[in-house]
TrEMBL record:
Record's GO cellular component terms: cytosol; mitochondrion
UniProt cross-references to Pfam families, sorted A to Z: Kelch_KLHDC2_KLHL20_DRC7
Name of the protein: Ras1-Scd pathway protein Ral2
Gene Ontology biological-process entries: cell redox homeostasis; signal transduction involved in positive regulation of conjugation with cellular fusion
InterPro entries to which the protein is assigned, alphabetical: Kelch-typ_b-propeller (IPR015915)
């Protein structure tokens, strides 16, 4: 496997604009181990974990506004209390937070125990429901079929949502043995409907997964060439539920990387690969997975190093990878991207902001093309990593747009004549200019920029609401480069040649 090349770090000429550091406000979690984090739009929920100071398990639920870094504790409005747990999983579906598995505490035995219960928090009513694990001895045929699909107790497992199903993969038991099993939970019927083997040693320490948009170019790039006839393609399309991409890395001295594509299919009969029945509206269904090793598709001249607790995200047609990089000479939270446009892995340089402090959990804000990383700017990463401690004192925002990482806008189809006419009128309908660092002026239309870049939207909206002096002061906080510019006020935007540019608008 190729080594990591030193010249493939994607740097930015004005990195000061590409990342920012905020301090958390309000009531935020204490240092904790093994908590789950679930994103819902511009908010995120933190649940459970083990207190890093006294080792007690917690069942607290926090919410943070990702745009303001403001936190508060979510109050339980019901009589049912959730089970304290850590190294569990959490997803959001249809206005509900769904948590599964992890490590709990058995008060009767006065010891830790593995969990395979599912607990659901309704965001509207702010109440909990507990779905206990079913015993294998059941009375009805329906329950008997469901019990065979029950997952084993586990912690540190992987998880994902495909449509109306929560998929749980692998993890470990309390003896630290890997569980080679995939389970499917029907979020509508709230039953486990499928269980099958999965011959990989997967856990959050060295692997992660993400769902793929079936119609995206990235998904098509991952999928093998289709040689089926039209009838077969139609049948399989009707059975298709969704696809997942696994990233696994191991042997951190001589790194082994694997990328596995999994496709889930649902067949409306009882004869399938892998057992388990889903009884909706009286009909039986079985599920099966198709597995494809696509590691060779992602081999490039540069490759990510071995990362602890990796996370993968899809941002447009780009696969973003984050994780903890540890060597004797460097300990840092790093970001890598595989871009279809470049056909290579590239490290994102954030000017050392993530090289200092302790950073662990990370989320992708797709609507803003941003990454949000949680941590503490003054603590030592290696110390917190050794005890698996997460911190939420600070939040770092990374603007992926600045590196050319974004969701491409959906362009409506126009005739060739219309496109030519639009290009001819482009300079005539411009209402503002882009001023490059080389002092070149490029006319453009603010409406197009407004629709194109979320960051530009936010700045223009802010300008419309504030007076000139207040807007000037808020821009000054972005750094000395703006304060010293000849043209002021200016707005930071991007241009298609991946340079950072400054926009000068006479009337905001």
């Amino acid at each position: 496997m190729p080594h990591t090349a030193s010249n493939t770090t994607l740097k930015n000429t004005v990195n000061v604009f590409t990342s920012s550091l905020l301090t958390s406000t309000g009531t935020f979690p204490k240092p904790v181990v093994g908590e789950s984090i679930v994103q819902s739009g511009n908010h995120a929920y933190i649940f459970g974990g083990r207190d890093a100071e006294d080792s007690s398990l917690t069942n607290d639920l926090y919410i943070v506004d990702l745009e303001t870094s403001s936190w508060k504790l979510v109050e339980n409005q019901g009589s049912i209390k959730p089970t304290p747990r850590y190294f569990h999983s959490g997803i959001i579906w249809n206005g509900n937070l769904v948590f599964f598995g992890g490590i709990g505490f058995d008060e009767d035995k006065n010891s830790l125990c593995g969990l395979n219960t599912t607990e659901i928090f309704n965001l509207e009513t702010k109440t909990w429901r507990i779905i206990p694990a079913k015993e294998s001895e059941t009375g009805s045929e329906s329950d008997a079929g469901t019990s065979t699909c029950e997952p084993l107790p586990r912690y540190g497992h992987l998880y994902c949502v495909l449509g109306d199903y929560m998929i749980v993969y692998c993890g470990q038991d309390l003896s630290n043995n890997y569980i080679e099993q995939i389970n499917v939970f029907d979020l509508i019927t709230e039953k486990w409907v499928h269980s099958s083997p999965f011959a990989y040693h997967c856990g959050v320490y060295r692997s992660n997964c993400t769902s793929l948009d079936h119609d995206s170019d990235f998904s098509k790039f991952c999928t093998a060439e289709n040689n089926n006839n039209d009838e077969e393609n139609t049948r399989r399309q009707n059975q298709f539920v969704g696809s997942l991409l696994f990233y696994l890395n191991s042997n951190f001295v001589n790194v082994k990387r694997e990328l596995i594509l999994l496709k889930l299919y649902k067949v409306s009969n009882t004869k399938g690969n892998g057992g388990g029945t889903d009884k909706r509206e009286g009909s039986n269904s079985c599920f099966y997975f198709e597995e494809q090793d696509i590691s060779e598709k992602f081999v490039g001249s540069s490759m990510p190093p071995g990362l602890r607790f990796p996370r993968v995200y899809m941002v447009g047609e780009n696969l973003v990878l984050s994780g903890i990089y540890l060597t004797s000479s460097r300990q840092a939270f790093v970001l890598w991207v595989y871009s279809l446009d470049r056909a290579n892995w590239i490290q994102l340089d954030t000017l050392g902001l993530l090289n200092h402090g302790s950073w662990f959990k990370c989320l992708s804000m797709q609507q803003n093309n941003q990454l949000v990383i949680f941590g503490n700017k003054t603590r030592k990463l290696i110390q917190d990593y050794n005890v698996r401690q997460s911190n939420y004192d600070n939040m770092v925002y990374v603007e992926l747009e600045a590196y050319g990482i974004y969701r491409k806008p959906k362009i409506p189809h126009y005739s060739e004549r219309s496109e030519k006419l639009g290009k001819l009128l482009l300079t005539g309908v411009s209402d503002m200019e882009i001023l490059t660092l080389e002092r070149n002026r490029i006319p453009c239309l603010s409406k197009i920029l407004y629709k194109r870049w979320p960051t530009f939207q936010r700045l223009l909206d802010q300008a419309a609401e504030q007076n000139q002096d207040a807007f000037r002061m808020s821009l000054s906080e972005l750094g000395p480069q703006l304060r010293n510019m000849l043209y002021f006020p200016v707005l930071l935007v991007l241009w298609k040649d991946k340079r950072n540019l400054l926009v000068n608008k006479n009337t905001v």
